Structure formats: C-alpha cells, structure tokens
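Recall the central idea of this unit: under ordinary conditions, the amino acid sequence of a chain determines the structure it adopts. In this exercise we apply that idea directly, starting from the sequence alone.
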Amino acid sequence: MAKRGTGYFDRRGNFFKSPRDATASDIAALLGQIGDGESLAPGIAHMLLERRSDIERLFEEHDEMMAEQEPAKSPSSLTDISAKVSKLPSRPAV
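Accordingly, the structure predicted from this sequence is:
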C-alpha cells in the first residue's frame, strides 16, 4: 500500500527528505565547482547553514560599515572647493 510523505525539492527539481538538504543543494549549486576533483561546495553549503546566524550578523555589520562609507563618497558631502577654482574669462559668441 502506498504511503504519504513529505519531501523537499531544490531549484533543479532534485528530491530531498529535509528542507536543510534541499537548501544546501541550492547553495552548493550557486557556489559551483570548488576545488579539484569532487567539489567542496556541498560541504561549504552545509557549513553556511550551520553558521547562518554568525554569517548574517557579519553581513549586517558589513552593511552598516558600507552605509557609513557611502555619505563620504556622495557629491553633497564633498568639501567646498569654489575658492580654489578660477573662473575662465568668457569668450564672445561666434
């Protein structure tokens, strides 16, 4: 007799028994081939899932640092240099 069950699929349609394994497969696919021979991507994908909270915290800190750096790059925050610029004499229209 048939039994009902729950399964999970990665983006390529591969079946997995747990959502963790399906997600790890998707992450490994995004990483691609890492290393010579058998790829290290599946192991790295599982490690990323295990360390997710630490990684998310690092990305939050990175985003904060980037946000702090952005105003320094924007034109509105540049120092006024009008005193250092000489106006060229106007030329008559031809």
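The chain has a mean pLDDT of 86.
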